[in-house]
Amino acid sequence: AQSVTQLDSQVPVFEEAPVELRCNYSSSVSVYLFWYVQYPNQGLQLLLKYLSGSTLVKGINGFEAEFNKSQTSFHLRKPSVHISDTAEYFCAVSVRMKTSYDKVIFGPGTSLSVIP
Amino acid sequence: ETGVTQSPTHLIKTRGQQVTLRCSSQSGHNTVSWYQQALGQGPQFIFQYYREEENGRGNFPPRFSGLQFPNYSSELNVNALELDDSALYLCASSSGYRGRNTEAFFGQGTRLTVV
Question: What is residue B2's predicted lDDT score, i.e. its pLDDT?
Fold first, then answer.
């Protein structure tokens, strides 16, 4: 069965410091990988995605992530965070099911708090 | 702005009642998925519709049902509401053959409270 683990439920970080949010997944088949951000009382916004090709993926708002197939990881990084980055971050995998649809599995989320 | 709209934004229902949530997909998207997000958790996949047919379902009981209309808008129906159904319900639309999720766009969600 496929699953997504986000190792840190809460990450406090000072403004302008770097941050890494960790994500590991398990799957016996190839997957697409995503990071979404959710601000309070809002839906999910796509930060970035890995479909194929270069393992370093750049997204919006200065975020990037690196796909590591051997470690089944897809960690999210930002070199310098802003107060506005305070939000919930979700890692997700899209798995092709036998009945020809893509099931998206989300991790439990990491709450990023940027401290002034 | 994603173009996916959900209504209503908030809803309070009594245990045992039925509820219908609505989603208007982004223009050109033929696939819609519904998710349940309980407080403090990640979204859980309920089901997916592609061109008006359900083509995938998560671990949710049959009292969770849906519809997709010719204009690709969608409804989520929940019968016999239970307290544990209280959650944020998210709709996501995408395009492609049989809903290949290379990118899904989410609505702002409907917050359902069951009392």
Answer: 53
